[in-house]
Specification:
The structure holds two protein chains of two kinds. Chain A is α+β, with helices and mostly antiparallel strands. Chain A folds into two domains: 7-67; 79-158, Glutaredoxin, CATH 3.40.30. Chain A contains seven helices and five strands. Chain A has helices at 7-21, 28-39, 46-54, 58-67, 87-90, 94-105, 147-158, and strands at residues 79-84, 111-112, 118-123, 135-137, 140-142. In chain A, strands 2-3-1-4-5 form a five-stranded mixed β-sheet, with helices on one face. In chain A, a hairpin with a 2-residue loop joins strand 4 (135-137) and strand 5. By secondary structure, chain B is an alpha/beta fold. Chain B has helices spanning 10-13, 17-31, 71-76, 101-104, 122-127, 132-138, 142-152, 164-172, 194-201, 203-217, 231-246, 277-284, 313-325, 327-331, 364-371, 405-410, 429-443, 449-466, 471-488, 492-496, 498-507, and strands spanning 2-7, 35-40, 52-56, 59-63, 93-96, 180-185, 221-226, 262-267, 308-312, 334-335, 338-339, 341-348, 354-359, 381-386, 393-394, 419-424. A five-stranded mixed β-sheet of chain B has the order 2-1-3-4-5, covered by helices on one side. In chain B, strands 13-12-16-14-15 form a five-stranded mixed β-sheet. In chain B, strands 8-7-6-9 form a four-stranded parallel β-sheet, with helices on both faces. The mean pLDDT of chain B is 96. Classes of the chains: A alpha+beta, B alpha/beta. The interface between A and B is large, with 43 and 64 residues.
Chain lengths: 159, 522
């Protein structure tokens, strides 16, 4: 993303998303997903627009945005690596793998590498518990990982 | 034309199924071979994924685990004619798929089609018995459908084990005109993947089960709430609902002769607690996924305050076969008050990881030693966590516990969503107990104090035990804290976190004795 939409662009775009999804029963989560899909995160400026259109308070919308782990408050790096930290992956060495990845990228969970290439996030289960340890890179799934397999995966996307 | 079956299940994709399919297509073109690649769900033999099958006049033959680089050599070895008398001389050749013991010994009722059919082909679905349960239900009165499900003995497969028929009866008896069927596909428990597999491998069976639930309770709208960590399941279910609507299975008239019923797919947003039914309902309504106090029950006042059936994916997916083959057929499997079959998910450090559907009643030891074949690392099994992050850790001493609801409760555990995660002897149970508390702290919705505060205090207490600070006093404190969480929490998150913690303390006391610090030289 080289260019962020300007403020008026943002308002128009968010209003269009709300108009499109408002008819759903319980439309707030679908709207927030759609906003994040367009902007890569849920911009703070979007909150009052959504609130006004759905006849909710800003606090209510803010409360929902901050409750769920998925909604970002700032854009992620160009690639997002979600590493499973749950028990089945732990049983196959996920903790050690996480330490190796953190050292390799020079960041901790919830951080983005200095060059903006990779954001590292923990995930609690991808449903790949029989092919552990597992990870998701930009929506693609990977199992039976070890440090070298993960390094070559990262090298592929970062290059 | 020879048909080749390659899974598109996420577990197969995670280990390279797409690369195998691509390579096979390339080889077919360059060698001028007449073959068709069909993408299926997974058979559930995950240690053999990507498992590739070749169709012959004598049935399907399996190869696995196939790497893209194996494709050329496999074709050279006679891959396309595996039924040849002399067999196939290749280490990845597994013989007829149905003869593989892991598959042969199963009783597949709910997962009968998974891994066999093209998940998005309604023709395949019908050809393998699909829609006959719904066709029978549409000809019955709602009361008769509820009665069939009650008689089958089906209990909620999400973990609570509540009789499905009784839940449906409660909603049917509500006079309201607007009622909902909510399919809980927020499968967040580590070690479980049955929901994901059935949604990716046989999505129409979930749709059919929901439509039957709609007929049975006079509900007209269904929601499937799928966690966002399952993009492949979301994609498959969305396409399947569209196809079902186009075919007249869903819409203004179910099967073009029943009442109206339609389904909408919704995506979660990464909150584990939304797997709890009332938190899920709040999330669907567009609120924070905070747990509601019960009563009122969702069956009386659920989604938008209307009577709502909230069922797990597997509960709903088990309904079509009950209607089709009759409640007795289903009820005759199982033991005690646990009737029918249960898809056991074998995960973690297992030699044979995957999905194993069987009647209730195998012992835990049979599952771990015989079915799973022990650990992948080849080291001794130390502990098995049954039922996800809120399930107890079982030592070998309890391996004679039969796999069914009551026996597990009596042994201080729960079968939950029937996931079992195997750990070898390198596991540190104090670390696992700490993780259970940490996970609860991260995922707590914050509504009740025992869960919100107790989990954080729990991490601190376990840390003190690990550091050797007044271990006896802190173990007593941990036990007291777990008691408060168990009986004082609003839902299973805080209420069941004591299971993994206390089972680790009880069964693996050696791990809670601090490592002796090297004494200073005198």
């Amino acid at each position: 993303m080289d260019r962020h939409p300007g403020k008026s662009d943002l308002a128009t775009s968010v209003a269009a998303i709300v108009a499109d999804l408002k008819h759903l029963e319980g439309p707030l989560l679908p709207i927030l997903h759609a906003v994040q899909e367009v902007f890569g995160y849920v911009p703070e400026e979007a909150v009052p627009i959504i609130a006004a259109d759905l006849n909710l308070s800003r606090a209510e919308v803010h409360g929902v945005v901050t409750f769920y782990h998925d909604y970002r408050h700032q854009p992620a790096g160009r690639h997002v690596l979600k590493l499973c930290r749950a028990e089945a992956c732990q049983a196959m060495g996920a903790d050690r793998l996480a330490e190796q990845v953190k050292i390799h990228l020079g960041i901790d969970f919830h951080e983005t590498s200095a060059d903006g290439a990779v954001t590292l996030e923990p995930v609690f289960c991808l449903g790949l518990c029989s092919t552990a340890p597992a990870a998701m890179l930009d929506g693609g799934v990977h199992g039976r990982l070890d440090a070298s397999a993960l390094d070559s995966l990262l090298a592929e996307v970062v290059a | 034309m020879i048909r080749i079956f390659i899974p598109r299940d996420a577990a197969a994709l995670a280990v390279g199924a797409d690369r195998v399919a691509t390579r096979l297509a390339q080889e077919a073109t360059s060698r001028g071979l007449d073959l068709a690649i069909v993408r299926t769900g997974s058979r559930g033999l995950h240690w053999l994924e990507p498992l590739v099958e070749v169709e012959t006049a004598k049935g399907r033959y399996a190869f696995g685990p196939v790497n893209a680089n194996d494709v050329g050599a496999l074709l050279d070895a006679g891959f396309l004619h595996p039924d040849a008398k002399e067999g196939i001389d290749h280490p990845l050749f597994l013989g007829p798929t149905e003869d593989i013991p892991f598959l042969k010994d199963q009783t597949r009722l709910t997962f009968a089609r998974c891994g066999i059919i093209d998940p998005l082909s309604l023709d395949d679905y019908r050809a393998h018995g699909g829609l006959s349960g719904l066709a029978k239900a549409v000809a019955l009165q709602p009361e008769a459908v509820v009665e069939a499900v009650t008689r089958s003995g089906l209990r909620g497969r999400g973990g609570a084990g509540f009789p499905t028929g009784i839940k449906w009866k409660t909603v049917l008896d509500c006079p309201d005109t607007r009622k909902y069927i909510v399919c809980n596909a927020d499968e967040g428990d580590s070690g479980t993947f049955a929901d994901r597999m059935i949604m990716e491998g046989d999505p129409f069976v979930v749709i059919e089960g929901m439509a039957i639930a709609g007929l049975a309770t006079r509900a007209t709208k269904g929601f499937v709430y799928i966690r966002s960590e399952y993009p492949h399941a979301i994609d498959t279910m969305t396409k399947a609902v569209d196809l079902a609507r186009q075919a007249g299975i869903l819409g203004p008239s179910v099967l073009r002769r029943g009442p109206s019923f339609d389904i909408e797919i919704r995506t979660g947003a990464g909150a584990y607690v939304c797997g709890e039914e009332t938190a899920l309902l709040n999330s669907l309504e567009g609120k924070r996924g905070v747990v509601r106090a019960k009563p009122p029950l969702p069956a009386h006042k659920g989604l938008f305050g209307q009577p709502t059936v909230v069922n797990n994916v597997i509960s709903l997916a088990s309904v079509p076969v009950i209607l089709d083959k009759g409640p007795e057929h289903y009820r005759d499997f199982g033991m005690g008050r646990s009737r029918g079959t249960i898809p056991i998910q074998i995960a973690g450090n297992a030699r044979h990881g995957g999905l194993y559907e069987v009647g209730f009643g195998l012992t835990l030891g049979e599952i771990v030693d015989r079915v799973a074949g022990g650990t992948a690392t080849g080291r001794p099994v130390k502990a098995v966590q049954v039922g996800g992050p809120l399930g107890a850790y079982f030592p070998r001493a309890l391996f004679d516990t039969p796999f069914e609801y009551e026996a597990f409760a009596a042994a201080g555990g729960l079968i939950g969503h029937a996931g079992i995660t195997i750990f070898d002897d390198t596991a540190d149970m104090l670390k696992q107990a700490r993780f259970a508390m940490e996970f609860c702290a991260v995922e707590s919705c914050g509504k009740c104090t025992p869960c919100r505060i107790g989990s954080t205090r729990g991490v601190e207490v376990v840390d003190r035990i690990g550091q050797g600070i007044e271990p006896e006093k802190n173990l007593a404190l941990l036990s007291d804290l777990c008691n408060t969480m168990k009986f004082g929490s609003l839902c299973a998150l805080g209420g069941f976190t004591p299971y993994p913690v206390m089972s680790a303390v009880t069964h693996f006391p050696d791990d809670f004795v601090p490592a002796p610090v090297a004494e200073a030289a005198e």
